[in-house]
Amino acid sequence: MQYAIQPSSNDKLVLDLTNAINGEFNAIRFYEHLAQFAPNEEVRNRILEIRGDEIRHYQGFSYTYTCLTGQQPSPQITETLPIDFKSGVLTAFKDEQEAVDFYHRVSRESTIPYISNQFRSNASDEQNHAV
Questions:
Q1: DSSP state of 37
Q2: Domains of the chain in sequence order
Q3: Which of 31, 41, 55, 92 has the fewest C-beta atoms lying within 10 Å of its C-beta?
Q4: Confidence (pTM)
Q5: In this predicted model, what pLDDT tens digit does every residue of 99-112 receive, in sequence order?
Q6: Which among 127, 33, 1, 23 has a CA at the least distance from the CA of 79?
Q7: Is 5 a residue whose pLDDT tops 50?
């Protein structure tokens, strides 16, 4: 993937990608932990399906980050794990909605079609997770 981008927009985009990577990294951990509290196997499987989407998002954002920077991302743990199922679901709903808004903003701001589409597609997945 080769695109000519302005250095100032590159800095903003790299920061947005870093935030997205951290969010997805934390979501992967979060959903793995939340699945342990699931009241039954059906709910557990749905949570793990969402986790699978988060892994795919993480890998895609990491690829894009590496293409833009030439470096591998170094995700940071920024969120605490849930202490029970109910609080976990409420936290997940809030986080998913915030991700939707963030991903839509980045999608609108990006002048690189691949990246714009990547964020828009992931926003759609995040909205489905919230539902």
A1: T
A2: 7-130 (1.20.1260.10)
A3: 41
A4: 0.91
A5: 999 999 999 999 99
A6: 23
A7: no
Query: Would you state the structure tokens that stand for residue 61, as one six-digit string?
Result: 């954002």
Show Cβ contacts of residue 103 under 8 Å, excluding neighbours closer than 6 positions. 20, 119, 120, 122, 123, 126
Please give the Cα distance from 3 to 115 (Å, whole number). 11
8 A C-beta contact, residue 99 and residue 23: yes
The dihedral region occupied by 72, where left means phi > 0, alpha psi between -120 and 50, and beta the remainder, is beta
Token code pair at residue 1: 């993937």
C-alpha–C-alpha distance, residues 59 and 13, integer Å: 17
Which among 59, 50, 52, 76 is positioned nearest to 118, based on CA atoms?
Answer: 59
CB 58 within 8 A of CB 25: yes
Amino acid at the residue 77:
I
What pLDDT, on the 0 to 100 scale, is given for residue 9?
54
Residue written as token pair 């920024």: 78
